[in-house]
């Protein structure tokens, strides 16, 4: 029997990890091929009522300096302690598995290199899509492909809010409140609703697929706080639903286009059917075509499922780096193109005293475009979808239009 | 440079494998960490116009006896030559990857054991779901879970036929003809339409998830040849679509229930939206909940994507078994329960001169059931959905009913 596993952070994911590991320990040990157990749980708190109270420790050094520990699950989050701990563990040749998307997005290339250099592994299946298998599928199963594009609904909180807006006509504010009541959103929901969380995940997926670290600062993001029920209604009438989509794609010249923003998704697209807190990720490869991965993108046991899967993989391959890596990059490198320079088609809603009278001017600006109607449309409102064109050209047109109208909404088409 | 790969069978999947490997060879070699190449393509035919004509060989021994060959893709299919070749290659310590579901379903436990004993790997990601990552996700990413259930649309041909019946009201016969014209169905479509192909795939998934070989003979299967447009219409009116579903699930007493048959799938279930030749597999784990994998379940390049992914994995782990295995079993073992002893709810369509007059008798037999209507229902027809009960009890009731009515259709509810 080796007491060779430690868990750092006994919060939601940490307690789920311990719970799932202990529940399925017999079958897990069979898969690993030897008896393994959790020796330490590091937390600043005590948990006297927990059945694992005797495994709680408060000093990181206990874990770091125990030669029996082979694998550590870092599920404490953040980029301060977690970064320091992870680095030191890897430098000692202990494998680390994590659900910490912020840390992987900020320091992935560096930590993977340290793991590689010290014959251990840094695995992060849980960092994207919760329990949905996505890292290993991209890195292993689809390794024969050039990845052309990855797009996904990567944040359950915003998807829940948008679903409530679309299906129950709740306002953004009410839907957010409900999400908070149900525990889907934090008291400070910024990281979710402003798109930071989805941005980190698309950085991880893009780095993995294209072999070079994409930092969050390289990606344009906008959240869902400005999506209104009016937009939801126009979108529905044109055959779309609004979803927060993270995307990364390879352009013909080898540069990448990456963006996180709300988008009008055609109802025929499978991503349009992904509701509530569920996540889905679509991956397009030159061999496989489109494949889609769907499931619970967060939550205690789903996330723990991915963490425990990584623990098992590490314990099966001790003293051997599991070979995931990508090159580091610097923020001055321009391999992610400016989003304004890429093409898109845009849904636009404007307000003006006599909106209808602006139609000839708008049509002249954009050429062939599509107007959308809604029941009881106010006279001072007009909504349309632009043709596919360079985004900065769309903005230039809207800048001119803003002299005669308020640009109330603009949302990219998927 | 190692010329260390051979491909057996230069048909659809074989030529796709060579095409994809050669196209992406640069990035593939980067992932492997050394220069690799395809040395031989074994086929009984010559391909003088192929750019790879000089790699074609006709004698299996050439591959078997070449020490440079490390990995062989067996994409010839069937269980005769393929079985013999695979066994001998593995015995020599050469890894084999395959898309051959018939062989894995018939001989998987044995071949995996031989691989294990000879420090090489037998991988078969391409055998289920074409290019959809499913084997590794179940085996690795979800390793921390007890798998509660796997259900899927595992055969593209029948899904295409059913989609045409549902969306375009084509008859089964016409839809089959169209599938044959488009190259989705073979001249002899038996293996697809009778459910054999889906059955092999559910055997593989079940063996993998539950650790014991499930042979096709252990599983009850029925195909889609008897599904009519009348059934499609009744199903739609009750909120269902008809899909060919393969399922395996663990019962409370540890035995397995496994079956392949057409089913009425509620429209709200994601599997109901999987149309045309696409496949989708839903996996339920005690940690992760439901995850779904979707994509092209067959075809030249999608299947090649999975084969090449496995080739890369083998070349990264030479002289090391990749550790997939399950116990063998014998046909007398009763760990898969008789389907008649499990519970289900059944859609039933009957014909009788005065069908309406049978309602009281039917209601008395089944208790609470649901009748379904359709426009212009003939007077001699009646359709209903039974409550959830042991299937042999449903059949006993229908046997009594068959004295006064013809049992025209019965299809299980999903």
Could you please describe the fold and organization of this structure?
Two copies of one chain form a homodimer. By secondary structure, the first copy, chain A, is an alpha/beta fold. Helices cover 36% and strands 24% of the residues of chain A. Chain A contains 14 helices and 18 strands. In chain A, the strands form three sheets. In chain A, strands 7, 8, 9, 10, 11, 12, 14, 15, 16 and 18 form a ten-stranded mixed sheet that branches. In chain A, helix 2 runs parallel beside helix 12 (300-316), helix 4 (81-91) packs parallel to helix 5 and helix 5 packs parallel to helix 10. The mean pLDDT of chain A is 96. Chains A and B meet through helix 1, helix 2, helix 6, strand 12 and helix 12 of A and helix 1, helix 2, helix 6, strand 12 and helix 12 of B.
For the termini of chain A, the CA-CA separation is: 52 Å
Contiguous runs where pLDDT drops below 50 for at least 5 residues of chain A:
none
Question: What is the radius of gyration of chain A?
Answer: 23 Å
Greatest interface (CB-CB under 8 A), with counts per chain: A-B, 52 and 51 residues
What is the residue-mean pLDDT of chain A, rounded to a whole number?
96
Task: Give the beta-strand count of chain A.
Answer: 18
Oligomer: homodimer
Total DSSP helices of chain A: 14
What does the largest sheet of chain A look like?
Answer: 10 strands, mixed
Structural class of chain A: alpha/beta
């Amino acid at each position: 029997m080796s007491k060779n596993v430690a868990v750092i952070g006994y919060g939601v994911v940490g307690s789920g990890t311990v719970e799932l590991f202990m529940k399925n320990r017999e079958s897990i040990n069979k898969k690993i091929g030897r008896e393994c157990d959790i020796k330490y749980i590091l937390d600043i708190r005590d948990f006297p009522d927990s059945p694992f109270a005797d495994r709680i420790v408060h000093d990181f050094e206990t874990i770091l300096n125990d030669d029996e520990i082979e694998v550590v699950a870092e599920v404490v989050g953040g980029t301060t302690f977690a970064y320091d701990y992870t680095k030191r563990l890897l430098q000692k040749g202990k494998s680390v598995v994590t659900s910490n998307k912020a840390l992987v997005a900020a320091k992935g290339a560096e930590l993977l290199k340290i793991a590689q250099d010290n014959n251990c592994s840094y695995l992060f299946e849980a960092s994207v899509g919760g329990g949905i298998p996505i890292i290993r599928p991209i890195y292993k199963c689809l390794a024969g492909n050039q990845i052309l594009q990855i797009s996904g609904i990567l944040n359950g909180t915003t998807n829940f809010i948008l679903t409530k807006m679309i299906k129950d006509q709740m306002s953004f504010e009410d839907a957010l409140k409900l999400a908070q009541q149900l525990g889907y959103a934090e008291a400070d929901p910024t990281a979710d609703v402003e798109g930071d969380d989805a941005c980190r995940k698309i950085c991880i997926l893009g780095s993995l697929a294209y072999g070079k670290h994409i930092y969050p600062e390289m990606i344009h993001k906008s959240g869902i706080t400005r999506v209104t029920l009016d937009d939801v209604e126009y979108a529905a009438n044109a055959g779309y639903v609004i979803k927060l989509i993270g995307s990364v794609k390879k352009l013909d010249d080898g540069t990448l286009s990456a963006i996180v923003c709300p988008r009008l998704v055609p109802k025929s697209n499978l991503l349009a059917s992904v509701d509530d807190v569920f996540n889905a990720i679509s991956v397009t490869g030159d061999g496989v075509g489109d494949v889609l991965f769907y499931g619970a993108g967060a939550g205690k046991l789903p996330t723990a499922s991915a963490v425990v899967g990584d623990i098992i993989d590490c314990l099966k391959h001790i003293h051997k780096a599991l070979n995931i890596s990508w090159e580091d990059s610097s923020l001055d490198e321009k391999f992610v193109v400016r989003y304004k320079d890429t093409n898109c088609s845009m849904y636009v809603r404007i307000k003006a005293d006599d909106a209808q009278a602006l139609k000839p001017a708008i049509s002249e600006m954009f050429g062939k475009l599509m107007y959308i109607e809604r029941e009881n449309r106010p006279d001072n409102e007009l909504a349309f979808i632009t043709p596919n064109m360079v985004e900065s050209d769309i903005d230039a047109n809207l800048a001119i239009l803003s002299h005669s109208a308020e640009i109330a909404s603009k949302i990219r088409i998927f």
